[in-house]
Sequence to fold (140 residues):
Amino acid sequence: MAILVCAIMLISGVSAQDVDTNNGYTVTPAGDLFLPAVMSPMTAGTITQGETDWYTVQVSPGTASLTTDLNWGDATDSLSLSAIAPDGTVGPYYDAADGATDGRIFLTISRTGGIAPGIWKFKVYGVSVQGVQSYNFVTY
Fold:
């Protein structure tokens, strides 16, 4: 019983940890966030295996963090998401990066002192896709 309790505590602790630290950025699972009043328009797209789709977002000076939500809802297909900031790249990230294998990559990118202002590019890549996979992508 004690082992089970320790395992449960360890699992919940792991899900709150950083996914990645790169170029001074910390990437963490976004969890259950409330949608802010200001966010980029949600984009609906489709992708096939080996295909790459690109999106851009203008980040204002003083922005503390950026949350990305790539949601395709089919864990049998595999997509990846990379963020190319004006001062470096983070990723690629895959389905389980946010702590759940559910056809969604839901992450928050932050850095002490704020994230780099300017144009951020996001790369959605069809790693392993059967046929055509639809998805939604939004940042806020």
